[in-house]
Amino acid sequence: MSIAFAQILKRLRMEKGLSQNEMAERIGVSRPTVARWENGSRLPDTAMIIHISRCLNVDTESLLSVATKSDESPNVIMVDDRKVILTGGLPVLKAAMPHALVTGFTRPAKAIEYAKANRVALAFLDIEMGKLSGLEVCRTLLEINPHTNVVYLTAYSDYALDAWGTGASGYMLKPLTPEGVQAQLKKLRYPFPL
């Protein structure tokens, strides 16, 4: 979440002399919703930020800009059942995204557990991983968080058509390269600060 947004929202509301209740009534939400925005545990969506900016008589673009800046490092995961692939791939991801928290998993179930406890911004998934395929892991990750970007990383081009049907952002053939990662980062459906 953006703590900066929470602090600015609270300051702007107080400068206007509005209570959380009054602001909530003016924009059509509950007081606890405003409280969550101001304590940094939630962010309003873009449409709501437009209502907030009108209510507080502030520039919408400035408020949107502050809201999209995150104080947290994005979580990036790589899932491949072969440890040697993770050993080679994780340093490439860390170099390409130095501000991200990059974590590797050889067991898809562990990656899913991690995604339930942590907001995953980007997942690099092998497709063939024993009992649970990367295609299934992708579907599960997107059920947990529809804004997770998924890039398939595989040695087989045969899976390309199946992969696109899952809502993934990209598809790369192994081995993982810095150039390939950079190219994929430019194509993400839900970009995040690097």
Q: Can you walk me through this structure?
A:
This protein has two domains: 3-68, 434 Repressor (Amino-terminal Domain) (Orthogonal Bundle), CATH 1.10.260.40; 75-185, Rossmann fold. It contains ten helices and five strands. It has helices spanning 3-15, 20-27, 31-39, 46-56, 60-68, 83-96, 108-117, 134-144, 160-164, 178-185; strands at 75-79, 101-105, 120-125, 149-154, 170-173. Helix 2 packs across helix 3 (31-39) and helix 7 (108-117) packs parallel to helix 8. The longest helix is centred in the middle third of the chain and has 14 residues, at 83-96. It is elongated, with a radius of gyration of 20 Å. The model has no long low-confidence stretch (mean pLDDT 87).
Number of domains: 2
Helix/strand/pairing category: alpha/beta
Fraction in helix? 40-55%
Strand content: 5-15%
Corresponding CATH architecture of the largest domain: 3-Layer(aba) Sandwich
